[in-house]
User: Fold these one by one.
Assistant:
Number 1:
Amino acid sequence: MSHITELAQQARESANPNLLMEGIPYAKLLGMLMEPDGTFHLPPKRTNIGNPTLPALHGGALGGFMEMCGITHVMMAMEVIKVPKVVDFSIDYVRAGLFQDTYAKCEIVRFGRKLVNISVVAWQDDAAKPIARARAQLLID
Amino acid sequence: MAVDLEDVRKLCELMVHANKEDHFHALGIEVTDIARHKVGMKLDYNENLVGDPETGVVHGGAITALLDTCCGFTASTALEHLGLTPTIDLRIDYMGPAEPHKPIYAVAEVYRSTRHVIFTRGVAHQGNPERPIAQAVGNFVSMDGGAFDNFREFVLEAYDQMVGRKA
């Protein structure tokens, strides 16, 4: 069992998903958290700013956050936890991502034997007004 | 008339270097080449970008941010006037993990530019662009001329200040 899968296992057993986030340097850099109800949370952090005049989140930071949400969500849903590989990821930006609390939820579209398709939606003030939608295909072996 | 490439270079340098604590610094992105419809960038290996501490492999999210930035800067070379190009959408295909402790390079190009949309594609590689680790396709908004009134003056002044501050 690898370090990450061990952390994921502990995170799941203790119902404290942030144990996993703390073990992944990139997730720590973004400063992302996971609420017990499965919602992901990206608190405002200066190092995620891309446009200082608005100020707005860097599109890449939002993309990276949503990608990490998808991976984590799939790991938490696995019977035997493994680290999935992202085959492809795409994101539609629909509203400006401002410098404020950002949330995301994931939905597994299909959990196949080899491939998992996942959809991720991110919002700020109002869950009915998403700022971005993403989808990914993940490979598990 | 097409936007002056020296102006675009200053805008890119400003975005990447001006704000010491922003996401460009967190990643450590450098712009290496700016030509019409083609931009090259480099991301040095950095422990903070690791997705799996056991292997030391950089997280895909950092590569997404690199390719988003590279495609976006490339899009801005296709404008008439100096301006920003918001991302409409982006798709990344990951062909394999990035080798740890080696820089990741990105090259992006504009393959078609229309009145409202700039179409780009790019690759990330570690020395051989023929063997990419990731490939991206991204579309960007081409805003009307009026959207960036006085933007060029603002950018050039801020750039001069930044360079003056460094010297």
Number 2:
Amino acid sequence: MENRINSVSPISDLEIRLQDTMCVNESQLQHKWYHNLKYMVVGILFGITFIKAEIVSWFRIQEMFRFQSFHMYGVIGTAVVVGMISVWLIKRFNIKTIYGEPIVFYNKTFNKGQIYGGLIFGLGWAITGACPGPLFAQIGTGALAIIVTLLSAIAGTWVYGFFREKLPH
Amino acid sequence: MIDLLKQPWPWYVAGALVGLTVPALLILGNKHFGISANLRHICAACLPSKVPFFKYEWKKEIWNLFFVVGIIIGAFIATTFLGNSADVIIHADLAAELAGYNITDLSNMVPKDIFSLKSLFTLRGFVLMVGGGFLVGFGTRYAGGCTSGHSIMGLSTLQLPSLIATISFMVGGFLMANVFMPYIMSL
């Protein structure tokens, strides 16, 4: 259980953002908004892949959890191997960002939330057939009813944030 | 070429492309792949409150919201211009099980029989759509990440907590699909 929030010394914005997340961004570069469009282009390619490989298919997720198909294991396994090799290459050759900044990695510390939260997410994943990324993609396919599911996921995140201090970590 | 793109892509092509998202985001600007964080940024941006967990400068993470808008656009492009109208081919055992739940429409990524506005106003549909979404949002943040943040980014950087989280995701999903789902589907 972390009590840092209630302590007298104010905690920094970065510290709050670092709670329970994998991704923070502390670049000192100031960019115009349109510099973010390059992430949208990556998102578009990612979204196309999601659909064309049926990663966001509710049916493929059901097969995965019933061990009826190798497809999703193949996708996730290949992604992890490609990701690992990429990260190794970035570290090995000290590759910089396109702006010349060194690439920074954060180590994750263990807390029990990864087990409790992980189990809760897993239960939901099998119901919706979607983790958060595919929820957005399913809406993009025209399945507009999934907007309800996404709003409920946002509500779930908010409720977690509200009760965070009382939950075991 | 276009015909080839219209076919369902094999797992090794898709897996490689998903994996390449990790270095792409890092090299474009030190960004760490993690989609569930957006649910938190939306809370921070749209639901002003005194909850300390949401009191941070969400605009510093706005790149991630651009990324998910891209996902929505990409999904639309793939469905509209690269789609094929064939039903998804699923394992015979799954098809039989789903038919037992009156799920027979295999024409979409999402089964219309249970995820639709009409279904939302039934007990089963409400539990699946609202309950399922809530568990995804609550669980991913409690776990500190989802499939992208933990299973892909976290495992790529050899984080043990991410391996523990990934195993927990799979155990939860396995329990739901094989143990609890028949009860929920019979609501």
